[in-house]
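About this split. The held-out portion is used to measure sequence recovery: a designer receives only the structure tokens and must propose an amino acid at every position. Recovery is the fraction of positions where the proposal matches the reference. Here is one held-out target exactly as it appears in the evaluation file.
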């Protein structure tokens, strides 16, 4: 399942992405409310993270993608990545096993639908490589989570 959410600044981009997901028969769940001026990305991140189960992926959109990623990475087992092109979307899946794609609804991506859809599809369709060195590094991140009591 794909869990999707946005604050007010990411609302239009989220609607565009949902339309594309529907066209391409992806199943998704939108956990953000209808447009609310000035709502807090932290609240939507909380909705998204609470809904995520193992193997789910999420897409979270705020103005820059940055606040969402900072907040989401405080949650256990969430690996949120801000992606700005196909390359970052591909490698954050292959190397980091990122499970949340964070996008900036007020960045230049808002004016480049083809690039936006390429990022989303690459993120959703690329599997984690499973290579030993990446597993080792992810295990070190888990150790940090445990040490920090996350
Ligand atoms: C909202 O104005 C904006 O700060 C928020 O959407 C996001 O960009 C935060 O990182």
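Reference sequence for scoring:
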């Amino acid at each position: 399942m794909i869990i999707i959410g946005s604050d007010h600044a990411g609302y239009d981009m989220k609607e565009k992405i949902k339309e594309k997901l529907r066209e391409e028969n992806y199943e998704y769940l939108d956990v953000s409310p209808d447009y609310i001026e000035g709502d807090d990305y932290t609240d939507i991140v909380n909705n998204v993270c609470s809904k995520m189960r193992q193997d789910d992926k999420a897409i979270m959109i705020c103005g820059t993608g940055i606040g969402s990623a900072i907040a989401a990475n405080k949650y256990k087992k969430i690996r949120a990545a801000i992606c700005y092109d196909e390359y970052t979307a591909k490698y954050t899946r292959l190397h980091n096993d990122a499970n949340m794609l964070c996008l900036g609804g007020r960045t230049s991506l808002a004016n480049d639908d083809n690039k936006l859809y390429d990022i989303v599809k690459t993120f959703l369709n690329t599997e984690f490589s499973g290579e030993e060195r990446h597993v080792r590094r992810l295990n070190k991140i888990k150790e940090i989570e445990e040490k920090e009591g996350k």
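Annotator remark: Helices lie at 11-23, 41-51, 66-72, 86-94, 113-125, 132-147.
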